Amino acid sequence: MDPEALFVYGSLQFPEVLFTLIDRVPDHSPAAAHGWRVATLPGEVYPGLVPGTTTARGYLLTGLTPDEWQLLDAFENPLYDLTRLDLLDGRHGWAYVCNPTAEVGDDDWSAEHFQAQHLPAYIERCAAWRRRYDQQEQAS
C-alpha cells in the first residue's frame, strides 16, 4: 500500500510531535472528515477516530516518504487500522482509525487541553520511543 496522504486529528497534528518522530514537519493543510468523531481513549492522552455524527478536524500531511510511513505505522497503537477517508473538500486521506473492538470514551478529545496539559511530556515520550525504534532498526 502506498498511501498518498495522511489525515491527522490528534497528537500528530502538532509540529513538535512530528519533528520528534520523523525529524521534520511534512507539508500539511487543514482538512476535515464528516461522519467521524475524535474521541478520548480511557487512560490515554491521545485520541481515537471513530464513526460519529460530527466532523473531525485536523490536517492532511502530504509528501511522506516510505520510511516515514513505516515509522508512523510502528508508532501507532495496534488499536488503530489505517483507513482511507473522504474529506470535506473532495480530497482523500488515510487515517489511523480505531478498530471496532477499541474502547473509546464518551467525550470528545480536546487538542487545546492536550497542548496545555500533556504536550511537553508527550514529546519526551515520543523521543524515548524514537530512540528505541532506531536501536531496533540498527539491530535488525
UniProtKB/TrEMBL annotation:
Family matches, as InterPro entries: AIG2-like (IPR045038), AIG2-like_dom (IPR009288), GGCT-like (IPR013024), GGCT-like_sf (IPR036568)
Please provide the record's keywords in A-Z order: Transferase
Q: Which Gene3D superfamilies match?
A: Gamma-glutamyl cyclotransferase-like
* Record has Transferase as a keyword: yes
Boundaries of every Gamma-glutamylcyclotransferase AIG2-like domain copy: 6-110
What Pfam families does its record include? GGACT
Q: Does the keyword Transferase apply?
A: yes
Q: Which PANTHER family match?
A: AIG2-LIKE PROTEIN D
Q: What is this protein called?
A: Putative gamma-glutamylcyclotransferase
Native organism is Actinomadura miaoliensis
